[in-house]
Amino acid sequence: MKKSNAITHWFLGIVLAGCSLAVQAQAINFPHINTTGYAEVLAEPDMAEFSVQVVMVQDSAEQAKQKTDKVVDDFLQQLQALGLPREDIRSGNIQLLPQMHYPKNAKPEQKGYRAVRKVKVTIDNLEMLPKLLDVALKSGINRIDKVQLGVKDPSKYQAVARSEAIKDAKLKAESIAEGFDRTLGEVWQVNYQSPQVRPMLSRSMAMDSSERANSYQDTTIVIKDRVDVVYKLK
Fold it and tell me: Which of 150, 168, 198 is the C-terminal boundary of a domain?
């Protein structure tokens, strides 16, 4: 009985596969042309996100927590004093881990506790970015993870890129059809996958404040789009 079921399933699989191939062959059984349209739009960044963190190693977990929380609290107060809304500042929970030392030819030893706490800030005024990073470092923040520049309304730029990609696909198809003495017909199929919603650009932090300020002003973000189109040929 089991052998009969296996044969039946195998036979059905061949039949279904054959039907699928037949449908595909029938579906493209006419003169056609495949084209891909590409487009890029340059946008000036008008917002930024940066992530920082505090790392403290102390003899006790309580000391590590207190010192880490103090640095973060001082930093948050300074950000709000500069006019940043609280909803644009996200501080994470503290992480406490034993700080281990691994000497040669000896057992591992615990050397206090390591506390880590992260803060992420979003701003819509890029001129403030170098100052805020300096404030972070002066507050006791000892690590800047990354700075990401972006645009607040990426859909506006994405719509332009999409429109240009469609034009590019059509122009290519018309040119190729003309080259083969054919006329471009109607669109038969369009394959499109929307790209990422929020274009961002990460920047290195290995520079001083004045260099960072200039680099942010000179930055452009490339927003790309593509569309695959199948046209019928007359």
Answer: 150
- Taking the C-alpha atoms of residue 155 and residue 181, their distance in angstroms, rounded to an integer, is 39
Is the CB of residue 39 less than 8 Å from the CB of residue 25? no
Q: Is 118 domain-assigned?
A: yes
What integer pLDDT is reported at residue 218 of this predicted model?
62
Instruction: Give the residue numbers spanning the domain of 167.
Output: 31-44+154-233
| Residue 74 parent element (H or E) | helix 61-81
Give SS3 for 71: helix
Whole-number Cα distances in Å, 177 to 25, 180, 226, 228: 22, 5, 20, 16
Determine if the pTM surpasses 0.85: no
Total domains present in the chain: 2
Expressed in percent and rounded to 5, the helix, strand and coil fractions of the chain are: 40, 35, 25
In a domain, 87, yes or no: yes
pLDDT digits (tens, 9 = 90+) for 4-32: 554 444 444 444 444 444 444 446 788 99
> Quick one: residue 230, left, alpha or beta (phi over 0 = left, psi -120 to 50 = alpha)?
beta
Contact 37, 172 (CB under 8 A): yes
Buried b (16+ CB within 10 A) or exposed e, 8-30: eeeeeeeeeeeeeeeeeeeeeee
Q: Is residue 23 part of a domain?
A: no
